Amino acid sequence: MTPVGTARPPDAVLVRRPARVRVLWLLVAVLVLAAFTVASVALGSRDVTWTDVWTALGGADGSLEQAAVVKRIPRTLLAIVVGAALGLSGAVMQGVTRNPLADPGILGVNMGASLAVVSAVAFLGLTSPTGYVWVAMAGAAVSAVFVYTVGSLGRGGATPLKLALAGAATSAAFASLVSAVVLPRNDIAGTFRLWQVGGVGGASYERIGLILPFLAVGFAVCLLSARALNSLALGDELAAGLGERVVLIRATAALGSVVLCGASTAVAGPIAFVGLLVPHACRILVGVDHRWSLPFSALAGASLLTAADVVGRVVARPEDVEVGIITALIGAPFFIHIVRSQKVRDL
């Protein structure tokens, strides 16, 4: 990876994809998301017929099957919005840091948000759902700054491996602190036990509506930063030479990413690896132009989390495997592959 503040050599800039290829892949991504959405509504611990699905979509809940479908709808919607937020957040983090290992989970951002929420509930008596989101975003921001500062120490600055190690250590420490806070408190232990793993099983329209304004702001900030992130990919010196305000761009894009992480973690817990897997796949399919890869990352992230939730519901019927476990099983081997790859320097 090229250190922050230095220009990248011309051969490090990856080949762009033709516009027709990008449009084609975006259409495919939309169709895949639609297919997983249908599967999420139709599949679960209880078998339902297509008739049950259609009648439940019309508002009927007179049978157990129809009631099951009605319950799956907000769960599916939450998986879509959280997956989109995490996918987009990971793509922006990788663009801001020019680090192919950047991910809200790996860098400890999600776990920082979790620790902030749990601490506020346990020690400050926080009960407001809206307060959860604000506290989670504050915790995510503090964690991101801390990890980047630690990873920047020493020779070479913030290299991918140093950031990954700092993030892993911070995440492990924060996870231990979360357990230390929750376990002695029987009044909150039950509420946060499953939430610590990361999942969308407790979805409701109220929870979705709670985070939508924050996600809207985060999506807008990140997507509007796409063109500037393209300039940052050339190196800070070249970006500054093109008239970009490098520090402001990096701070603004990072803020949008933190908002998405914090809001998602507040309602679904710390779900890792979505922000790592998705941007890599998107760059392969649509190229490195952030104007295309960012919206594609949002679509792909929504598809991945929705698919992971469906898998978690059907592999251990009638019990559910939380979506955070499924994404970890998928993402951990991929993370190891990226670390071992010689191309870890080239983003």
Structure description:
The chain crosses the membrane at residues 23-43, 73-93, 105-126, 132-151, 163-184, 204-226, 247-272, 292-311, 323-340. It comes from Streptosporangium longisporum. This is Iron ABC transporter permease. There is one protein chain. The radius of gyration is 20 Å and the shape is globular. The longest helix has 34 residues, at 64-97. The chain has helices at 19-42, 50-57, 64-97, 109-124, 129-152, 160-182, 186-193, 205-224, 226-232, 236-241, 246-268, 274-286, 290-314, 323-340. It has 347 residues and is mainly alpha-helical. The protein has a single domain (17-345), classed as ABC transporter involved in vitamin B12 uptake, BtuC (Orthogonal Bundle), CATH 1.10.3470.10. It is built from 14 helices and no strands. The protein starts with 18 loop residues before the first helix and ends in a 7-residue tail after the last helix. 72% of the residues lie in helices and 0% in strands.
Keywords for this structure?
14 helices; transport; 72% helix; ABC_BtuC-like; transmembrane helix; transmembrane; ABC_transptr_permease_BtuC; ABC transporter involved in vitamin B12 uptake, BtuC; 347 residues
Write the layout of secondary structure elements.
Layout: H1 19-42, H2 50-57, H3 64-97, H4 109-124, H5 129-152, H6 160-182, H7 186-193, H8 205-224, H9 226-232, H10 236-241, H11 246-268, H12 274-286, H13 290-314, H14 323-340
Helix pairs in contact: 1-3, 1-13, 2-3, 3-8, 3-11, 3-12, 3-13, 4-5, 4-6, 4-11, 5-6, 5-11, 8-11, 9-13, 12-13, 13-14
